[in-house]
Amino acid sequence: MTASGRKPITAAPGWARRPANLASAVTAELVARIVRGDHPSGTLLPTEPALCEAFSVSRTVVREAVKVLQEKGLVQVRQGAGTQITPPSMWNVLDELVLAAVVAEDETLAVLDDLVVTRRLLESDMAQVAARTADEVTVAALRDLVDLMDQLVADPVAYREQDRLFHDRIMQASGNRIARGVVRALESQVINTARYTGRNDRDLCAASNRGHRLICERIAAHDPEGAAEAMFTHITEAWLVRRSDAGDPSRLER
Asked: For labelling alongside 116, which of 5, 77, 93, 152 has CA 20 to 30 A away?
């Protein structure tokens, strides 16, 4: 740490080749370093000349990157006082780069647990609404998806795609575009990460689809409370099976 509170840059970025969009690449690298703690909260980001030298880029690129960091809530630019790293409570964790970096650095899986809790809350409510409003076309589509997934349990990649379609069909049936948008945005950032997908074998897919079938049955029966409970249980149990033994899953308890 320098006397001014800045942590010097000690390594060049690990780019295999020079990126076409330098500002985006520098931003992504700095997001990862800040989340990782290379530049701790309360300290100052290295100076503009130091960043230019470390990344072999122009001042324009650095300024653009710092501006984006500020928009993401990771830094505060104070005229004459430098660029200060903000505490995690100020970070926009719904941002794609920030969420990806936070997930990558979270050995306890607490962030993913929170994501699952959020998804569970929203999807349970949407399943409840769907059970009240779903028409015959929607119910038939859900049954077709469940039947198809039964045939795909030995193909986890194909199964996951139909799994997403099943959940999305229910969200669409609820008519809640905001809740659907939040769930889709959150899942899009982690859907292909190993920590979120976890185990992916035939038995897991088969168990998961039993949960889907129960949800489908409760929606078809126009049972709002039963549909909500089935969705809550399905999302919880599917995640507990997928997640590793890292950390404490008590954050999922309600």
From this structure: 152
